[in-house]
Structure formats: C-alpha cells, structure tokens
Write a structure and sequence with these properties.
It holds the Pfam family Aldolase_II. This protein is of the alpha+beta class. The chain is built from 9 helices and 7 strands; from the N terminus they run ααβββαβααβαββααα. Helices cover 42% and strands 11% of the residues. It has a 7-stranded mixed β-sheet with strand order 3-2-1-4-7-6-5, sandwiched between helices. Helix 2 packs across helix 9, helix 3 packs across helix 6 and helix 7 packs across helix 9. The chain is globular and about 60 Å long.
C-alpha cells in the first residue's frame, strides 16, 4: 500500500478520522525525510500533536527506520511518554525529553522536527551559528535560538533549560548537536526544515571557499524573512512543498516520470 492508498484507507477503530489524517501526513513526511537523506539511523524524530486537551502527540516507534514508519505504527504518547495507542515498540528516551518538553510548554508547538544532518551538525558546532548572509539563511532572520550542549538529551533536568533557550522562536540550534524546528502545523514545519537545511548546506559550501563573505543588511534580512514565508498567494507554501516532495518520492520509488511532451 503506497502513501496515497494509506491515506484513503478506513481508520482503525481506536483512531478518529482527524487523527488518522495526521498520522498519514506524518508518516508521509518520515518517508520524505528518508528519501532526502535527512536521517540518522533509527534516531531523531518528527512529532505532531493530536487535537484535544491532553496534549498527546504522535512519534515514530524506536527501532524502525524512517521508511518503515506507517500511519498505524506511529505511537501516540502523553507528556510523560506513556503510549496511548496500540504498539509493540518503545519510545526513544531522547525524543521524549526534547519533544515532550516543548509540546508541554508551547501552545503553538503542534509539530516539532529534530535532525542530525551533516550540514546541520556542522553549523551547530560553529561559534557564530547560522549565517543570515545567504538566500536561505536570510529567511531565518529573527527565528533562531541557541541551546548549549549538555550531553545526550536523556535527562529530565535539561527540559526547563531547553524550553527557556527556545523561548518563542521557531528554530533552535542545539549547539554541537543538531537542529530543532517548532511550528503550528506539519506543512509549515516542513517548509522551515527545508529552508534551514538549505541554509546550512549553502553556509558549509560558502565558508569552504577562499575570500571574504558578502554580508547582507539587517533590512534585507528582515524583508527576506517575511517574504520567504508569505509570498505564496494561496498561503499554502508548506503544503505545496510537502505534496510535491511526496509525489517526487513516490515517482522515484515506482520508477515513473512525467512525459514532458504531454
């Protein structure tokens, strides 16, 4: 069953139609991340909050590759990391520590993405962090927070400091560690994760060249941060990008292509 067929399937009895739709969208996003290579073995997480007062959220089963995640095997957990849906898999402790802290503290944190990409970790190890002097980095102007590395994130004592470091920002560089994205929905988080990844890739490439970097003005950075998110007339930029990424992935898997002469 491909992702489109899965989305059209009847939800299991233990799942509402609204939750099933989120599960299908989240599972598709895990597969897109795998297709793009934004993976770290069985580690890292993309979580989405399930509607309701309990602040339950969906997380990938620990031990599965991203391309093994499905709508039905995603685990719904509470803020204490206890499973609230049928599962044969555990929840990664590090994923619980980071994601539960932010989901609990931020009312707008409906989707959280944590990555360990090569470019992301490389930039996280730089004292100055993310450069806002390239096309993608400029779009992150005013969005980025930083959190100092305290070791592997498996200790509950770090949670309040993670939340304090994040504040009201949508992006946090976990220094010497990786990247974190916090957004109001999954498509918007996908757009921001893509932009952040490209910013880090371009920064790594440009800083490997000889010669001085060309800085941008604060005014240009601010304008780029606004326009990068709001230029789409339909206001659906993230959804369009995610849908296109899913189509590209599924066509690649099936060995299909569009006839440009059509």
């Amino acid at each position: 069953m491909n992702l489109a067929q899965q989305a059209a399937a009847v939800p299991p009895q233990w799942c509402t139609a609204e939750e099933w739709e989120l599960r299908c969208q989240l599972a598709a996003t895990y597969h897109v991340f795998d297709h793009f290579g934004w993976i770290e073995s069985i580690f890292n997480h993309i979580t989405v909050r399930v509607p309701g007062p309990e602040k339950h959220y969906l997380i990938n089963p620990f031990g599965l590759n991203y391309n093994e995640v499905t709508a039905s095997n995603l685990i719904k957990v509470d803020l204490d990391g206890r499973a609230q849906s049928p599962t044969d898999h555990p929840v990664n402790r590090a994923g619980f520590i980071i994601h539960s802290a932010v989901h609990a503290a931020r009312g707008d944190a409906h989707c959280i993405i944590h990555t360990h990409t090569d470019a992301g970790i490389a930039v996280s190890c730089l004292e100055d962090g993310i450069s806002h002097d390239n096309f993608y980095g400029a779009q992150l102007h005013g969005r980025v927070a930083y959190h100092d590395f305290e070791g592997i994130t498996v200790h509950a004592g770090e949670q309040p400091r993670l939340v304090e470091s994040l504040g009201d920002k949508a992006v946090m560089v976990l220094r010497n560690h990786g990247l974190l994205i916090v957004e109001e929905n999954l498509p918007k988080a996908f757009w921001l994760a893509w932009t952040l990844q490209r910013a880090c890739e371009i920064q790594c490439a440009s800083q490997s060249l000889s010669g001085a970097s060309l800085p941008l003005s604060e005014a240009v950075r601010a304008a780029s941060a606004h326009d990068g998110e709001h230029f789409d007339p339909d206001g659906r930029l993230g959804q369009k990008m995610l849908d296109a990424a899913v189509r590209r992935m599924e066509m690649a898997r099936a060995g299909l292509s569009i006839d440009f002469r059509a």
